[in-house]
Each structure stands twice: as C-alpha cells, then as structure tokens.
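Design request, tokens follow.
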C-alpha cells in the first residue's frame, strides 16, 4: 500500500532530518523537519524562521542548544531536573550521505541558493572520506553559491588526488599543485613542458600570466619529486591548464591528471572560453 505523506511545490532538503517547505500547496500542510533547531517563535512561524535561517546562514554562526539535564546526570550528581543554557555551532549543511552532482543556482523564496542532484557513492569509504573533508571545509564556509561550490570542489579534489603522492596542498589549492608540478616538469624537461627557458625567464613568464612564481621555486624544482597523475580535476586547475596549453601545446595532460578522468578534463577545457 502506498500512502502520500506530504505534497508541496518546493522543498529545501538540507540533510537527514532537515527539510523545509519553501513553497506550499494550498490545502496541504507544510513539511518541516528542523534538524535539531529550536526556533525562538510561535509554532506557526517555525517554517518561515527555518527558511530565513537556512538561506541567510553564516560560517561559525551559533544557535541555541539549551536542554534539560539527562536522567543519568540527575542520578550521578544527585541533581534536580534543571535547564542547561548552551549554544552550539549551526550546521544546516548537506551531510554527504549521497554524492552531489549538477550544481546550479535556483530561486528559493525570492532569493538564490545553490541546488544539486545526487547519486550514490561508489563505496562507504568514499562517502566517509567526503564527509570528513567537508566537515573541515565547512568550519569557515557555507555551501550556498557557485563560488562556494568551486571552493569546496577545489578543497575536496586536491585532498583526494594528492593522497600518497608526497606533494602537499597549500592555500593555492589545485592551482598551486598544477603550477608546482608544471615547474618541475619544465625544469626537468619532461612531459612537453620544456621550452629552454632559464629559471628566471620561466618564473617571469608564469608571473606575467597571473600565477606568481619566484626564481628560487624554479631552481628548487630541479631536485624535487615529479609525481604523475597528481593534479586535481577542478575548474580552477582547468583555467591554468588552458593558459599553459597556449604556450606549451605539447604538454602531456595524461601525465598530469588522474587516470580515467581525461574525458572530464577535455570536457571542462572545452567549456572554458
């Protein structure tokens, strides 16, 4: 037997046990699961409060977490049933139990917010890894716009692609990884990245292209390890790749990017103007 539980025109699906009715259908009740949030208003205003809280949330925002002490605490401490005043960090971000795909901006309650489709993860380990990485990223970020998605994608792809390669991710993210690996390949004369430039000339060329590089970086690249397939596939790394291909058309992309993802690389390069 099938039973209709809810009927609404638009839902905000934040996370497990976190859904809000963004657009109701007349004659049908709103769907509202508040993910542990306690709105400081009357019950009739809870849905409106949750919509505004979700769309206007900020990194490191705090929310009320006041609660009664547990029965265990009462027993162990011989305490009365009292209220504990507490705050906790607001977390209305997706919980990554599925993989987010097809990001785009959509209208919600007269405002714009990022939306996705989703697909299953290939394994529980892959899901757990994404969730752990996202917990680190969301400490100072919220996933609300395409710029936020670009930042998260760069953070995630940089972490998983460089695992076991011996090359560290810096604040430059995927761009820094590609820049450093390209310099090593150019200085060591591999992968079609050599044009016979001196260390100084190579540094000046990259800096002039908008990617600040020092002569010392190029000198040190001579004795640095050159890992294969260690450049993350992100929109940011693709922008630099497109720039480099204009000057190094024989650059071997198969050595730079992870195996099995060249179709994605070529697709992203083709979409860049």
């Amino acid at each position: 037997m099938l039973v209709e539980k809810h009927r609404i025109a638009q839902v905000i699906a934040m996370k497990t046990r976190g859904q809000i009715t963004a657009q109701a259908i007349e004659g049908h009740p709103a769907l509202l699961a508040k993910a542990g949030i306690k709105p400081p208003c009357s019950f009739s205003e809870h849905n409106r409060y949750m919509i505004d809280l979700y769309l206007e949330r900020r990194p490191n925002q705090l929310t009320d977490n006041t609660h009664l002490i547990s029965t265990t605490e009462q027993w162990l401490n011989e305490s009365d049933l009292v209220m504990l005043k507490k705050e906790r960090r607001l977390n209305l971000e997706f919980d990554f139990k599925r993989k987010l795909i097809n990001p785009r901006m959509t209208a919600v309650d007269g405002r714009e917010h990022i939306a996705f489709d989703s697909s299953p993860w290939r394994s529980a380990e892959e899901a757990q890894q994404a969730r752990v990485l996202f917990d680190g990223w969301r400490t100072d970020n919220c996933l609300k716009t395409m710029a936020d998605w670009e930042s998260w994608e760069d953070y995630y792809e940089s972490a998983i692609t460089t695992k076991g390669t011996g090359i560290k991710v810096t604040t430059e993210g995927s761009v820094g990884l590609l820049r450093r690996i390209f310099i090593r390949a150019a200085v060591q004369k591999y992968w079609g990245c050599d044009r016979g430039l001196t260390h100084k000339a190579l540094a000046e060329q990259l800096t002039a292209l908008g990617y600040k590089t020092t002569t010392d970086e190029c000198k040190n690249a001579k004795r640095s390890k050159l890992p294969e397939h260690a450049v993350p596939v992100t929109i940011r790394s693709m922008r630099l790749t497109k720039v480099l291909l204009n000057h190094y058309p024989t650059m071997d992309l198969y050595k730079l990017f992870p195996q099995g993802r060249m179709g994605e690389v070529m697709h992203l390069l083709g979409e860049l103007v």
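Comment from the thread starter after seeing the answer: thanks! Residues 145-271 form one domain.
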